């Protein structure tokens, strides 16, 4: 069989095996992702396998560069890829995508034994907090609001409705008062 026929058969098999599996994702007919572990699991990781034109006679391209793997150190990623590469060497010449995904699932704990989650948000907040002390005092002076006394707050509350808005016409001039006192020409 030619490489293309092998790929077509394996593609069909992968689609039928992983139909309805949320962990499996077909990016293209020659590129696949599989999430090892549950979504909330800190030791979960994502493997991407891309077939070359001559796959399965030549090894597929293995990758762990997905955003999902940002909390995994590069040393752990390299370790996982090295172990998967050994499995590729053992299965060269045969359809191996399913085998690699299952191998990763079976050895997840062993792969992730040295994993300490990297919290990128913490490192960013540390950088931000290091920069902020210089700007903090000036921002406090700008943000200070004028404090109102209880009597001032009560007057303000009496003028406004339940939404804190002034009633319609609050700044209108009392027309009746003006007409009575305003014109001396009428006398």
UniProtKB/TrEMBL annotation:
<feature type="domain" description="RWD">
    <location>
        <begin position="9"/>
        <end position="111"/>
    </location>
</feature>
<feature type="compositionally biased region" description="Basic and acidic residues">
    <location>
        <begin position="155"/>
        <end position="166"/>
    </location>
</feature>
<dbReference type="InterPro" id="IPR042770">
    <property type="entry name" value="RWDD4"/>
</dbReference>
<feature type="region of interest" description="Disordered">
    <location>
        <begin position="132"/>
        <end position="167"/>
    </location>
</feature>
<dbReference type="InterPro" id="IPR006575">
    <property type="entry name" value="RWD_dom"/>
</dbReference>
<dbReference type="InterPro" id="IPR016135">
    <property type="entry name" value="UBQ-conjugating_enzyme/RWD"/>
</dbReference>
<dbReference type="Pfam" id="PF05773">
    <property type="entry name" value="RWD"/>
</dbReference>
<protein>
    <recommendedName>
        <fullName>RWD domain-containing protein</fullName>
    </recommendedName>
</protein>
